[in-house]
Amino acid sequence: MNLIDDAEKIFLKGVERVDPRGLLAYALSLRGERLIVRHAEGSFEYRLADYRHLIVTGMGKASAVLAKGLEGILGDRIEDGFVVTKALSGIDCAKVRLAEGGHPVPDERSIAAGEEVLALAAKVRGYEAAGEPTLVIVLISGGGSALLSAPAKGISLADKAATTKLLLGSGATIQEMNAVRKHLSAVKGGRLAEAFAPASVLSLILSDVIGDDLDAIASGPTVPDAATWESARRVLADRHVWDKVPPSVRALFLAGLAGSVPETPKPGSPVFSATKTLLVGNNMLALKSAEEEARKRGYGTLLLTSRLVGEAREAAKLFVALAGDIAQYGLPLKRPACVLAGGETTVTLRGKGLGGRNQEMALAVMAALNPFRRGHGEMLFLSAGTDGNDGPTDAAGAFASASFLEKAAEKGLDPRDYLADNDSYHFFSEIGGLLKTGSTGTNVCDMQILLLP
Q1: What is the pTM for the complete model shown?
Q2: Beta strands 134-140 and 200-206: pairing type?
Q3: Is the four-CA dihedral 351, 353, 354, 356 of positive or negative sign?
Q4: What is the model's pLDDT at position 216?
């Protein structure tokens, strides 16, 4: 068995399953003037003849590909549209205007995108006021929080970026980060649905969040917000950044807590009376497809979880322990074995190196491999992001194995030193252990693959 080739092919098969175009083709179909929307419990439909205007908007790493797929279904029925994504990668649309924004920290392009979407919402409200019913389809995927930015009154882009950077470096979860960002925004936390009301809104969502919490994906722009000023403030306090965020951010939170700044829309708000939401893809779909590919390649499989969270370097220890038990005892499954997991771990920055959570997990596996090497044979571990980008790097993730550890030793590289500096990218660059796929056009968290032949 070629373990590197097997791991890469298993990973890519999972990514292929959550390609946005295929997901849309399953979820949506056009029958004359009826748009049929399928979901797990059945279906519902929109009579397009009932609407004078059909508008598309969206945000996220997969939004451009989603827009392209939607145009393939609705064609000229789309009147206008605008979506913002991380990288266009040559994608073009006939009806929907495309733009790039900053990620993971918003930039001036993100602000311009926010202004564009709010202008589109104002046009839709004008249609509704003139008695012209409008259907708005919103395409939402991971990364949307940064890519579409409309800071709340009194908050600058620099303020918001500084707060995001502090949270990224504190080890905050995606849910915690989004609770804060929703309260710093004019479009997140249900405020985009509020901006389009009273138009009919259909949100199509590709999940990059553990448990598929709709109010956390891209900070929930079109769904009720469960977070409050108080819960978001606690995130800043618990992550020890309350005293470090810009004064304007603290001032806004204090005003919100005092009741002088409105809360984000909550369940039961009339702004959601004409909104529907459909989850079109998630991490579990990718994992099940990856598992099927592993079985075709002759591996016994264990799909461990789609909810892996916590510090990447701590999660790594689980996979080393599993490898040891499989090798020595044939538990929880016999060789050849493939253990699959997915989710989204975090990294607390301690050093000044370069990398991402997947590369850090693989590096932590390398740092813990020495005990495993004693008589257990070969194993291979891969952790990679389904979007093809791990942190601020051009790699999706990295491979770890005893063979790679030997390469590192030959070069005098100690994984523990690089781990202490959060410098996984340069470590794996030296030994050829990076996985580079380029942008995949999708985003459903990360995948981990452990192989023992």
Answers
A1: 0.87
A2: parallel
A3: negative
A4: 86
309 plus 222 within the same structural domain: no
pLDDT band at 371 (very low <50, low <70, confident <90, very high): low
CATH number at residue 315: 3.40.1480.10
Residues 387 and 289 in one domain: yes
φ/ψ bin of 275: left (φ > 0), alpha (ψ from -120 to 50), beta (otherwise): beta
| CA pair distance 256, 260, nearest whole angstrom | 6
Residues 6+ apart with CB under 8 A from 266: 190, 224, 225
In a domain, 111, yes or no: yes
Q: What are the tens digits of pLDDT across the range 149-195?
A: 999 999 999 998 899 889 988 989 878 988 998 999 999 999 999 99
What is the β-pairing status of strands 200-206 and 275-281?
parallel
Q: Which residue has the tokens 């979880």?
A: 305
Q: How many domains does the chain have?
A: 2
Residues 6+ apart with CB under 8 A from 439: 61, 86, 87, 89, 387, 388, 389
Give a yes or no: residue 60 inside a domain.
yes
Q: How many CB atoms lie within 10 A of CB 283?
A: 29
Cα 152–Cα 180–Cα 151 angle in degrees, nearest 5: 20
Q: Report pLDDT for 175.
A: 82
Residues 274 and 344 in one domain: no
pLDDT tens per residue, range 249-272: 999 999 999 999 999 999 999 999
Distance CA 157, CA 168 (A): 16
Whether residues 345 and 412 share a domain: the answer is yes
pLDDT score recorded for residue 373: 58
The model's confidence at residue 246, banded by pLDDT at 50, 70 and 90, is very high
Structural domain contains residue 159: no
Cα Rg of the chain (Å, integer): 23
CB 450 within 8 A of CB 317: no
